[in-house]
Hints:
The complex is a heterodimer of chains A (224) and B (397). With 224 residues, chain A is of the alpha/beta class. Chain A has 9 helices and 5 strands. Chain A has 2 domains: 2-128, Response regulator (Rossmann fold); 133-218, Winged helix-like DNA-binding domain superfamily/Winged helix DNA-binding domain (Arc Repressor Mutant, subunit A). The longest helix of chain A is centred in the last third of the chain and has 29 residues, at 190-218. The model of chain A has no long low-confidence stretch (mean pLDDT 82). Chain B is an alpha+beta fold. Chain B has 2 domains: 1-257, no CATH class; 258-397, Heat Shock Protein 90, CATH 3.30.565.10. Chain B has 13 helices and 9 strands. Chain B has helices at residues 7-30, 38-54, 67-87, 90-94, 104-116, 118-136, 141-209, 212-234, 265-269, 290-311, 344-349, 354-358, 360-365, and strands at residues 239-242, 251-254, 263-264, 277-280, 287-288, 317-323, 327-334, 369-374, 380-387. In chain B, helix 5 (104-116) runs parallel beside helix 7 (141-209). At the A-B interface, helix 1, helix 4, helix 6 and helix 8 of A face helix 7, helix 8, strand 4 and strand 6 of B.
Amino acid sequence: xxxxxxxxxxxxxxHPMWRDAVARDLGESGFEVVATAGDGDQxxxxxxxxxxxxxxxxxxxxxxxxxxxxxxxxxxNPALRVLVLSASGEHxxxxxxxxxxxxxYLLKSASTEELLDAVxxxxxxxxxxxxxxxxxxxxxxxxxxxxxxxxxxxxQPRAPELTDRETEVLRLVAKGLSYKQIAExxxxxxxxxxxxxxxxxxxxxxxNRVELVRxxxxxxxxDE
Amino acid sequence: MxxxxxxxxxRALTGYRVLTMLYAVGLFATQYDxxxxxxxxxxxxxxxxxWTLATLPRVQNEAACTKRFLAAxxxxxxxxxxxxxxxxxxxHIDSGGPTLPSIWTAGSVLAYAIKGGWRWAAFASTxxxxxxxxxxxxxxxxxxxxVILVWVASIAIGYVVEVARxxxxxxxxxxxxxAATRERERLARDIHDSVLQVLAMVQRRGAVLGGEAAExxxxxxxQEVALRTLVSGGLTRVSWASEDVSQxxxxxxxxxxxxxxPVDLRALLAxxxxxxxxxxxxxxxxxxxxxxxxxxxxxxxxxxxxxxRHAGEDARAWILVEDEPDEVIVTVRDDGPGIPEGRxxxxxxxxxxxxxxxxxxxxxxxxxxxxxxxxxxxGTEVELKIPKASRGKAGQR
Lengths: 224, 397
């Protein structure tokens, strides 16, 4: 980080109060706030122009929902890291944002230190999980597993599954253990814990993309 | 424009009038020999055809079908009926031959029925009955038969139209209520979101400012958790009951006496979430029989009491609900000092495991279990399990 200059952050929130407070906190802590936006359309335009490393995104936005903003921007630049900062934590929205490429989720009630730490971790590609998000992701995998399996010959993608280890790690995250504590308990390295958590998200996002492509092909959208 | 229920009726009426007009003319042509004064008959049919075709737009919908039109239309029909004895020979009348407009008359009466319901239909078919009897000159059986047929049919159709209009009104009202409810929910979401933002901001700034502001911030934080739990679907929906079937979609909220069906465990556990208690759940209903859900919730409550008693007021706690295919697992973890290995049994003897594990017996009655896991430095976990088979539907699995 040090040799590449400060991390470039963009803050998207429709409440000016929050936008300014978050931008100020980030600026004071050595991040470079390259842009802010107050609605979905603005966010998409400005993010494409400013090219931030990390997008701090509220999901409840006017004009265009945050989930859609996340989809468009990650589709445009897969290297962009998205940290969702939400007030209400509506389950469907959060899960949808994570599936479409967000790698972090934090409630607005988190402290300033937690926020700064989350942005730093998001920037280096570490998934930022709350216990609540871990619970949702576990639930999502279980729902996918309980769906009727596609016929053996069908070219449908198989539902993603967690390995036993990944499930174990995710359960510990949901119970509020830090990565460090999880590493201690399972006698694995901190890095391995991070990899496991990252994989759980990666598989969901991949499955989501495969489903989208399959849907597009079924609907004939791949035709010239 | 939305298709109304009665629109097809008006279309049918339009078709009926044109077809019966052609029928009446055709009937006249085939029975030309019966006519003493065909000139008057031809004159009447010219008027009838002209009137029918010119007034086609009048029978397209309720608004166009004015009272004046209805009156004029009925007059045309009645004139035709009364004219009949003047233009045909007596043999035609005595053999029960058709009147000049014949079944075209029914179209006029049906227009009344569709416009105004069964009362209007009864009103319009009465003069038609009288005119028919005058035309025949005597209450012959086939004439009375026809008269009653027109009467009954028009009243029945009038009644059907009234019922259709009533249900259409009910449907419109229900759609209106639904739209209003959705709009209210949307507004509530926005307002809740704003309130949450402000509470979170007060909490955040309060923590920075310290002193009295910190206390305010802490209170705002408590409320933030409570409201967030509420809006993120922690509470079950009220039940709706329809009271009057004829009112269809008109419903009211009811208190469910004692739910027989499964309840969503999340709704019972969500109120435990607080500033220091995190609540993680799968994002979909976790259904259990009411008894089992209550036992589990009670066990979670007792476990949290235990955390406060043994790990201190400042200890944080995490609740995790997992909905496995064959069981429901609820874990309560705290970040207290934990219990060193080897002391677990001793702790159990001292009552250190608290009320939560005294529920162990009750959970076991439901086929479940309660386990205590403690890792030094990582707090204590109570893992509560209830098999889903205990809901009595084990045969299905």
